[in-house]
Amino acid sequence: MEIITVERKILEKNDAIASGLRKEFLFRKQFVINLLSSPGTGKTSLIERMAIKTKNIFSTAVIVGDVQTDNDSKRIGALNIPVVQIVTNGGCHLEANLVRDAYKNLLDLKFDLLIIENVGNLVCPAGFDLGEDIKVVLSSITEGEDKPLKYPVVFRNSVALIINKTDLQPYLNCKASGIKENALKVNPSIKVFETSCKTDEGIDEWISWLESKMKSK
Amino acid sequence: MEIITVERKILEKNDAIASGLRKEFLFRKQFVINLLSSPGTGKTSLIERMAIKTKNIFSTAVIVGDVQTDNDSKRIGALNIPVVQIVTNGGCHLEANLVRDAYKNLLDLKFDLLIIENVGNLVCPAGFDLGEDIKVVLSSITEGEDKPLKYPVVFRNSVALIINKTDLQPYLNCKASGIKENALKVNPSIKVFETSCKTDEGIDEWISWLESKMKSK
Questions:
Q1: Which residues, 6+ apart, have CB-to-CB distance to A71 below 8 Å?
Q2: Do A67 and B140 touch (CB under 8 A)?
Q3: Nearest to A122 among B6, B120, B149 (CB)
Q4: pLDDT band, residue A7 (cuts 50/70/90)
Q5: Which residues have CB under 8 Å from B166's CB, separation 6+?
Q6: Residue B64, pLDDT score
Q7: Among A71, A142, A171, beta carbon nearest to B140
Q8: Whole-angstrom Cα distance, residue B62 to residue B76?
Q9: Is the Cβ pair A69, B167 closer than 8 Å?
Q10: Residue B204 belongs to what H/E stretch?
């Protein structure tokens, strides 16, 4: 009973901070993605690819969460995009107060899109509102077809699913169509993209859809 | 302060149950592996492959943890191996009390090896003792070379690292040698295997090593 009370308090506090962040993002006309996935699905590669392709269309900033290291922020920073690294030191997900503190470093900058690259974890981050407009889940095709059924909350809470590394499909028993089918079982309205950051497959379709979402905010 | 107290209580309670389980496993002469990894690295495929190869050498039982579904226990059960499924219903890791309850279903059976397939999560399960003899971390080669640096606790706490899906190496920029190098940086004594459940590469070496560990218990 004591634990449940503490958990509720944590979530209530998180939601209050997330709500404040959401107002701030709206005021500044910034569209915000909370990008979720397992470790090693290509979140940073996707952000790199998007940054290169969209630099003449809209401006992007990134907040990166990792348990340890600032490898990802170095990779993104190399593209001349503003980036703030959060190292959680063992923490398994981002919470709104961490994003609020990181966002303070971006207050002097103008940008249209903020991507929050969450900690690589398909379970815990799904339950925490960070003030984002949309949650997007990235799945590597190598992970197998059953992940939406095994980890339903993150797929249910996401507006879009990006199935990445499709260039590896010829060498796998797993098919993107199987992942899509299972994702639609847990979330019939989820929008599904199939991408490869190596061959560029599907990246333009994903960016076009994102642009339309940004315009309708 | 309140939260820290609750967390400490949870860990103390877990450790007490794990300690009891460890005595029980020793009494019954069972060797126990706590198998940890991200989602979709091939934990169940490895168990399937091991079960087929070792059926005339030693007997195996499996406890499987998943956030949702009993897909994995069905796959393992099809091999005529005793298997108990734990569905955590959103929980991000196994705790000793869940294993103790699952293990009750195996008390009437004789077996030499118990594999506890943990929830697919590279962060949270690493901190919970389940009474196992060894933690083993499974990494898919598709996840990239930097995972040991980004998720150091699970690699530090594991006695062995199995780098799986090496059949995909020709199609990736990532090399098994790079993962190994980073794993040794965070845990210089970790034993590293390179395996493919598709081509059978490295499975015999892993089983031989495991056999020697089981004999020395």
A1: B146, B149, B150
A2: no
A3: B120
A4: confident
A5: B141, B176, B194, B195, B196, B199, B201, B202
A6: 97
A7: A142
A8: 8
A9: no
A10: helix B203-215
Closest CA to B117 of B60, B55, B196: B60
CATH number at residue B58: 3.40.50.300
> Each residue of B146-172: pLDDT tens digit?
999 999 999 999 999 999 999 999 999
Whether residues A71 and B150 touch (CB distance < 8 A) is answered with yes
User: For strand B134-140 and strand B160-164, is the pairing parallel, antiparallel, or unpaired?
Assistant: parallel
Helices (H), A28-144: 43-54, 71-77, 96-103
> What's the pLDDT tens digit per position in A155-171?
999 999 999 999 999 99
Half-sphere exposure of B12 (CA within 13 A, CB side): 6
> Among residues 111-140 of chain A, which lie with CB inside 8 Å of chain B?
119-124, 140
Average pLDDT over residues B175-196: 98
Average confidence (pLDDT) over B131-152: 98
> How is residue A62 written in tokens?
């990134």
- Integer-rounded Cα Rg, in Å, for chain A is 17
Element spanning B149, H or E = helix B147-150
Q: Is any Cβ of chain B less than 8 angstroms from the Cβ of A199?
A: no
Q: What residues contact residue A82 under an 8 Å CB cut-off, 6+ apart?
A: A61, A62, A106, A109, A111
Query: Which of A123, A154, A186, A199 to probe the B interface (max B CBs under 10 A)?
Result: A123
Both tokens of residue A47? Answer: 């952000």
Residues B128/B138, Cβ–Cβ less than 8 Å: no
Q: Under an 8 A CB cutoff, do A92 and B123 touch?
A: yes
First-to-last C-alpha distance (Å) of chain B: 41
Count of helix runs (H) and strand runs (E) in chain A: 8, 7
Measured between beta carbons, the chain A residues lying within 8 angstroms of B122 are 38-39, 120-121
What's the total number of domains in chain B? 1
> Considering only CB atoms, which chain B residues are within 8 Å of A90?
123, 153
CB contact under 8 A, B120 and A149: no
**Whose structure tokens read 């490898």?**
A71
Tokens of B109: 């059976």
The reported pLDDT for the residue numbered B96 is 97
Structure-derived torsion over alpha carbons of residues B209, B214, B215, B217, reported in degrees to the nearest 10: 130
Domain interval for residue B14: 2-216
Task: Give percent of chain A with pLDDT exceeding 70.
Answer: 97
CB contact under 8 A, A121 and B123: yes
